Amino acid sequence: MVTSRVIRVDDDVYRSLQSRARPFDDTPNSVLRRLLELGDEDAQENEAAPSASPKPTKRPRAGAGQRTQQEFFRRPMLEAIAELGGKAQVTTVLQRVKQKMSGRLTELDLSKVNSGVPRWEVYARWLRVRLVEEGLLGGERGYWQITEKGRAYLKGGK
Asked: Hey, which end of the chain has fewer CB within 10 Å, N or C?
């Protein structure tokens, strides 16, 4: 059974989700799953449901300094993709990023979110969305690819 949560988003975030939605097909959740490359939501719904659904436990929110800031993944992500030939599967890129971030990831970063994905990977996937919007990354589903603008970013040291 999949647990649903309510989130609030700003109008500009909602408009951005709308612009990425497939008419008559997508929900905000399916758009987010596609952007974060988390797979098909139907697969999540088809998992065996427990006989009694446990009450979700609230996790304390991370305070400042407890997690690695998302922006700290920018250069390691771009470098990892460049080192992998400019284009690579997401899992391969994330493995390389984890190596590059070794010693910088906190206990909270390494903890897993409800879906079982390490928290730092969620940060990296969200950053990837921004890097695509900035023109630094591209690639088809399942692959991340550095653009010429991304290579120029790395050379410029910015």
From this structure: C
